[in-house]
Design a protein that fits this description.
Elements (H helix, E strand, L loop, with lengths): L8 E8 L8 E8 L5 H11 L3 E7 L6 E6 L4 E2 L4 H12 L9 E5 L2 E8 L2 E7 L4 E2 L6 H5 L5 E4 L4 E4 L3 H6 L4 H5 L6 E6 L7 E7 L4 E4 L3 H15 L3 E6 L5 E8 L2 E6 L1 E9 L2
Length: 271
């Protein structure tokens, strides 16, 4: 792909699910004039070396944007934090008015984002976890025991006994990388006041040892904890080293995710 002055490739790096720089989950966002080949996008994602790089192309007739997500290793079908970052980039750069709803056409259907004061609310599909057997070696690689093991269409879900257990996990990433899983969500009820549940997300098979804050994981966590507690709305915290807080709610077969975002870099891709 070549660029020129009339078709520059705008680039943003945005910390999603964050209220201050250098926290939450960083995502790159590239606004493209047209779709390049997949190899170029994968190379850009590898160059960015973030958990996700989002690529956007505007659709005709004011029908929003087409959106795709790439890790440094693969393309993925659903990503929350890079969608939140994409919406933030469009509003902040003036490509969309603050009152407009951001519509994204993706491999997981149409996703929307709306502004709610300083927060951004995403409307995503729920991904339910059904009880499942863990692949041989999974719990050993995590270094823990499980109170529940399930699997969604994307990932395994492991409930452990406490927030302290989640925080202390130090998985064998090389061993996890050999298992036939995209990602592993580990969760527990929260003991920290003001939180309902906590989690961490490991996806070495997708090129991400640990994702700092994972919107798509909460599409599974929200219906899971709703079924266990009878509640429909939660405050959740992902306990990575950067950390991030989400306000989440189940609404039928949809999950609403609220987070904040901060722009760290703006520029243009030169290749």
């Amino acid at each position: 792909m070549r660029t020129d002055a009339s078709k520059s490739v705008a680039f943003f790096q945005i910390d999603a699910f964050a209220d201050r720089p250098f926290s939450g989950n960083p995502a790159a966002v590239c606004v493209l004039p047209a779709w390049p080949d997949d190899r170029w996008m994968q190379q850009v994602a590898a160059e960015m070396n973030l958990s996700e790089t989002a690529f956007l192309v505007h659709r005709d007739l004011q029908d929003g944007y087409e959106l795709r997500w790439f890790t440094p290793a693969i393309e993925v079908a659903l990503c929350g934090h890079a969608t939140l970052a994409s919406a933030h980039a469009l509003w902040e750069s003036g490509r969309m008015e603050p009152v407009e709803v951001a519509r994204f056409h993706t491999k997981s259907g149409v996703l929307t984002a709306t502004r709610a004061g300083e927060w951004i609310e995403l409307d995503f599909p729920a991904t339910h976890a059904e009880p499942a057997e863990a692949p041989p070696g999974l719990l050993e690689a995590l270094g823990t025991t499980a109170q529940f093991i399930g699997r969604s269409r994307f990932d395994y879900l492991i409930e452990v006994e406490s927030e302290a257990t989640v925080a202390a996990l130090a998985p064998d990433q090389a061993r996890l990388r050999t298992l036939p899983v995209r990602g592993v969500i580990v969760t527990s009820r929260a003991s920290t006041p003001g939180l309902d549940f906590v989690s961490r997300f490991f996806a070495p098979g997708a090129g991400i040892d640990e994702d700092p804050v994972t919107g798509s994981a909460h599409c599974c966590l929200t219906p899971y904890w709703s079924a266990k507690t009878g509640k429909s709305a939660f405050v959740a915290r992902q306990l990575s080293s950067r950390g991030g807080t989400l306000h989440v709610a189940i609404d039928g077969d949809r999950v609403r995710l609220r987070g904040q975002a901060v722009t760290v870099l703006r520029g243009e891709l030169a290749v």
